[in-house]
Amino acid sequence: MDQISPQEAQLNPAIFEKEIETVWNKASKAWLIMKEQEGRALTQDIFSRLKIIDQELKKIEKELPELAKEHLVKLSKRMEELKFTIDIEQLKKEAALQADRDDVTEEMIRRKSHMQQMNQYLKSAEKSVGRTLDFLAQEMGREVGTLMAKAGSSKIAQRAVKIKSEIEKIREQVQNIE
């Protein structure tokens, strides 16, 4: 379209409206393209963070069986320090009760479910998923917090802190998704 002088546009409102519409359409298309590019970048970032979380949680799952043994050893040492007579069967029962209280199976199952749901929403064609993803990230954070509290292991706590950090980064990103 040829350039139209401001004087011509003032003289002919139809030309002015057409120019405004053309500029508006170009700007709208450019904005939509930018938003789609930003969405793809955010999605890729979230997928990479979910992968880190998954790797750390798999490491935790491998470490959990050793935790019960560590609790048994700690309890045994503590009883020796306090000069208690050690009844091995009672000690095993106490360790089993502690292991039951520390069981994080439920949290691990929910965490897997939340991650699967998050992956599904990120891959879906649905447009408005930001709030749902934020909710899922919040729930993942709660599960990891419970896992950290129950595990009672500094090694697992370090992994959980890393996971919580990644979850918070995901939450920041999903709050930018419309």
Brief account:
Helix content is 85%, strand content 0%. With 178 residues, it is an all-alpha fold.
Structure characterization notes:
This protein is mostly helical. It has six helices and no strands. α2 runs antiparallel to α3. It is rod-shaped and about 105 Å long. It starts with 5 loop residues before the first helix and ends with a helix. The relative contact order is 0.12. The model has no long low-confidence stretch (mean pLDDT 82).
What is the strand and helix layout of this fold?
Layout: H1 6-11, H2 13-81, H3 88-101, H4 105-123, H5 130-151, H6 154-174
| Rg over C-alpha atoms, rounded to the nearest angstrom | 28 Å
User: What's the helix count?
Assistant: 6
Alpha carbon gap, first and last residue? 35 Å
**Assembly context of the chains:** single chain
Beta content: under 5%
- Helical percentage: over 70%
Largest sheet: none
Mean pLDDT: 82
H/E element sequence: HHHHHH
Global outline: rod-shaped
Number of strands: 0
Poorly predicted residue ranges = none
Structural class: mainly alpha
